[in-house]
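[09:14] KT: can someone run the structure on this one? pasting the chain below
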Amino acid sequence: MDNATYTTLTRQSGLLQEMQVLANNIANASTTGYRAEGVMFSEHIKALGPGTESLSMATARVRDTIMTQGSLAQTGGTFDLAIEGDGFFLIDTPDGQRLTRAGAFGPNELGDLVTPDGYQVLDAGGAPVFVPAGAGPIGIASDGTISAGGAPIGQIGLFTPDDPNQMIRQNGTMFDAQGGIAPAPDGRILQGFLENANVNPILQVSRMIEVQRAYELGQSFLEKEHDRIRSVIDAVRS
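[09:31] RB: done, structure tokens below
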């Protein structure tokens, strides 16, 4: 297998990964708090010797999470919360604490504020948020302070990763901040709103078409290169 074939194969592999990422973004365009992904291509160049052109190969092994603000949709729900600016909610899951921007919460039968999957929402100190039943109208201030009947009863935590580059996506909307977390001083919580996915479906579909065309061109080149090599081998044998 010659250098041209190796180079094209690595390019095809990267394009295939980008196609999968784009498809996942489009599928989650209506998922609350979803953060779109992109693929980062890197180029590796190797010198082949004096008087010989260097070999350049591209790989796409790193997924980049896009952290731009999604649009806010007003729902009027008491425990529907959106973050304006920087920050994440902190969630306690069976696999450890996770960060998320998806704020569709609600109290469970014990009064703990939980996600739709039943995971506890944590306060500024890392403890579960408790909302007593029958305590009066619930209000949530921009700093996360929860009031029941006008009296403060807790504060929803808002956090940011110490190193955004060490945030690992665990599923569609949750992240593992392996570099640690710290309070987010600039984020604001809005009660009665949810943040939409920061996915632009039109741009994603347009990019998918471009990637598909590039992949088809690469596939056509590989087929022609295969036919060329086979014809050379046949000529040598004859």
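[09:33] KT: thanks! The mean pLDDT is 88.
[09:34] RB: yep, looked fine to me
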